[in-house]
Design goal:
This protein is α/β, with parallel strands linked by helices. It has three domains: 13-132, no CATH class; 137-249, NAD(P)-binding Rossmann-like Domain (Rossmann fold, 3-Layer(aba) Sandwich), CATH 3.40.50; 255-446, no CATH class. Helices cover 51% and strands 12% of the residues. The protein has 14 helices and ten strands. The chain has helices at 13-33, 39-57, 68-92, 100-132, 146-157, 179-188, 203-215, 255-291, 338-345, 353-359, 372-381, 398-401, 411-426, 430-446; strands at residues 137-142, 163-169, 193-197, 219-223, 235-239, 242-246, 297-303, 309-315, 363-365, 394-396. The strands form three sheets. Strands 2-1-3-4-6-5 form a six-stranded mixed beta sheet. Helix 1 crosses helix 2 (39-57), helix 1 (13-33) runs antiparallel to helix 4 and helix 2 packs antiparallel against helix 3 (68-92). 29% of the residues are buried. Residues 261-445 form the Bacterial sugar transferase domain. Keywords: Membrane, Transferase, Transmembrane, Transmembrane helix. The chain crosses the membrane at residues 12-34, 40-59, 71-91, 103-125, 266-288. This is Undecaprenyl-phosphate glucose phosphotransferase.
Length: 452
């Protein structure tokens, strides 16, 4: 199985930007301009409001191809909204007697510093890409026409945006072009992003390219040089003045959503470890040891985010055997112990995976990780199976509460699982996570038919 790799935007840039901006607005207010206010109250109000305003105004939606005029527009919009908010805070706390000119002065100083930082980060990243070749993404284009040549020129003439363009394929050149050789090139050159001219590819070729991108963790984007593609999932972006369409919008690629999900994972897993595993683990350990010899915990290599392997932990539910890493438990499996039947039926055997969540290898909710041997097999035979690795695997998932838990008895089981996993990836929200967790708990209490 070839290795799967995908370049990504740095997940730290937006959280760092949030932290610095919040430090500026809170430090200026508390230490200099509004010394009479309760610092805790202002800190809570300003921080919460700033984050909410930023999400709605898209203040941190700045990418490598974003123009300076767009950044100025974002700053101005956030300035106006935050000014109104500070006036509302002042009016609500009129006893503080904060004068309007003080507010305007505070806003001016705060946004001068925030603007300087935002542009400094923007230009430093450009300099870093140009001078050191870092923070780059490898690109290739399928189709040669006026639009694609303009995009190729954009990539080659703007190194500050961090794109390394490898090749533009002439799809219409029947003698020298084939999708098979194209795919081999994309793999061997470790291309991160594929750009397709819609008008140059046939429907059959388009499907093959989409399947290749999905199954090999490549980002696929389209140049809309005709109007044949319409979908609410397609997202417009502009590189300079060239419109680009993204095939799949993944909410968890957004740094804010990543931060929210990771914070929830840390909080939830910590609560489970402290209040459940702390006393349950010794009891389960004694029961496992009394029935059979062997370790209390079972460790198994599985594929996670970006296809990276990690050790997944469970309470041991089988007698030690050499096939544990190769074959799933089946109905009436003789390897499963009496204690194992109970902890598998109630999903207690999965609880040690909350340590995986705390360590960052897994999430509470996400596509269930498979054994490495099974992943290799399914990646070859099940269409779009690799899409599941765009996000961290989970202890539970949408597929598991939708009837696709446990043993894969037929192709229908794994195809259904992949379908629900892709829906989850494309439609993630924290409310969906909470719904899945609640349904998982209810199913564990009731007991599930395929929990064996």
């Amino acid at each position: 199985m070839s290795s799967f790799k995908q370049g990504r935007y740095s997940g730290y840039l937006r959280p760092i930007s949030y932290l610095i901006d919040l430090s500026i607005i809170n430090s200026l207010a508390i230490l200099y301009f509004f010394k009479s206010i309760d610092p805790i109250v202002f800190l809570i109000v300003s921080t919460t409001s700033w984050i909410i305003l930023s999400i709605f105004s898209k203040f941190y939606e700045v990418y490598r191809y974003t123009r300076e005029t767009t950044i100025l527009t974002l700053i101005f919009r956030q300035l106006v909204l935050f000014t109104l908010l500070i006036f509302a805070f002042s009016g609500f706390n009129h006893d503080l007697n904060i004068r309007p000119q003080t507010i305007f002065k505070y806003i001016l100083y705060a946004f001068i510093l925030i603007g300087l930082f935002k542009f400094a980060l923007y230009y430093l990243l450009q300099k870093y890409r140009t001078a050191f070749g870092g923070n780059y993404r490898v690109t290739a284009i399928l189709g040669k026409n006026k639009q694609t040549l303009a995009l190729e020129s954009f990539f080659n003439q703007n190194p500050e945006y961090g794109y390394i363009h490898k090749k533009t394929f002439n799809v219409k050149d029947k003698d020298n072009f084939s999708l098979e050789s194209c795919f081999q090139f994309l793999q061997s050159e470790h291309v991160d992003e594929i750009y397709c001219s819609i008008s140059e590819l046939s429907n059959s070729q388009m499907h093959q390219v989409i399947d290749f991108a999905d199954n090999n963790l490549k980002i696929l984007k389209f140049l809309p040089d005709n109007k044949d593609i319409y979908s609410k999932k397609l997202k417009y972006e502009y590189y300079d003045y060239l419109p680009i369409l993204s095939l799949r919008d993944i909410p968890l690629e957004d740094s804010v959503n990543m931060f929210i999900k990771r914070a929830f994972d840390i909080l939830f897993s910590s609560l489970v470890i402290i209040f459940i595993l702390s006393w349950l683990t010794p009891i389960i350990a004694i029961l496992i040891k009394l029935e059979s010899k062997g370790p209390v915990f079972f460790k198994q290599s599985r594929n996670g985010f970006n296809y990276k392997e990690f050790d997944c932990y469970k309470f041991r539910s089988m007698t030690p055997n050499k096939d544990a890493h190769l074959h799933q438990a089946t109905r009436g499996d003789q390897r499963v112990t009496k204690v194992g039947k109970f902890i598998r039926k109630t999903s207690i055997d999965e609880l040690p995976q909350f340590f995986n969540v705390l360590f960052g290898d897994m999430s509470v909710v996400g596509p269930r990780p498979h054994m490495v041997s099974h992943t290799n097999m399914y990646a070859k035979k099940v269409d779009k199976f690799m899409v599941r690795h765009f996000v961290k695997p989970g202890i539970t998932g949408l597929a598991q509460i939708s009837g696709f838990r446990g043993e894969v008895e037929t192709d229908k089981d794994i195809i259904g699982r992949v379908k629900y996993d892709i829906f989850y990836i494309e439609n993630w929200s924290i409310l969906l996570d909470l719904k899945i967790i609640l349904r998982t708990f209810i199913n564990a209490v009731k007991g599930e038919e395929k929990a064996y």
